[in-house]
Amino acid sequence: MIGTVVSVGALLVSCSGQVGDSGGNDSKKLVLIPGVADEPFYISMQCGAQEQAAKLGYKLDTQAPTKFDAGSQTPVLTGVVANKPGGILIAPTHATAMANPIKQAKDSGIKIVEVDTALDDTSVAAASISSDNKKGGELAAQTLAKLVGEKGPVLVINTKAGTSTTDARAQGFEEAVKNYPGIRSLGVQYNNNEAAQAASIVTATLAAHPDLAGIFATNLSSAEGAATGLRNANKLGQVKLVGFDASPKQVEDLKAGTVQALIAQDPAGIGAKGVDQAAAAIEGKPVTRKIQTDMIAITQSDMEANSKYFYKRKC
Ligand code: T6T
Hints:
The chain is of the alpha/beta class. The chain contains 9 helices and 14 strands. The chain has helices spanning 40-56, 70-82, 99-107, 133-147, 164-177, 195-208, 220-232, 248-256, 267-282; strands at 5-6, 10-16, 26-33, 59-62, 85-90, 111-115, 127-131, 152-158, 183-190, 214-217, 240-244, 261-264, 286-293, 295-299.
């Protein structure tokens, strides 16, 4: 599956947006609330969203929390709601802890679209756009299995429990890895979305399991940190690393052979499609409740051909 675009397309679950219930909100204004500020995945999402908003005649602002957690994201959301935009595109940082603040935003007449992450409660957002994250985890397991010759202990480094996307990736990986009898999963460890913690997890795991064969890092911070941990332990190339996402640093790591494969998503596409759905909801047109965007596994040998999937630091 290396180099294969996993295109799942839109799941056509359509329903009608309601017309005329915007309660005095500025119907031409959208706000994007990413999971955290200054991170290439969300910057690329913002670029795609801005471009699409301009095409459709909407104004799009971005307000980002400084930390990837519900405690930081909630006050940002509350501040945005007070300004009454027509729609909010939000990446909820927790599948349940963000439910009440997002419901309140919806109840004030603002159309809600989930971008990337989602709430467990599917009744809140008008639409939800993301990769097929479980399938991405399965793709990571197949890719890592090939790299380790289908044997040895492997570890999953995840970001924060309660993040819908990365939890689905870890689940997909753990299920798919069971298809390889020679591979033993050491389970999932959490890095709190801090690269330094991911590096420490690698150091501690190597001390306990010097025969560690491979690592699946479920997102950018996990993968950047895992690469640092392997570098510090002089295990580069010996322990195979498959990471989700394609930040500039992850791409450097792939080029250097520190990481063997990256599973890139389409954050700009997620942002653009999020704007389409928010505009449709505001204008009372049909919306598509669940849309899945592309992912691709990229290795050193095909990285040049796939450079369009690399994430950006600025638009
Ligand atoms: O992997 C992306 C995103 O899909 C995930 O929900 C959270 O982490 C990232 O933003 C990368 O850091």
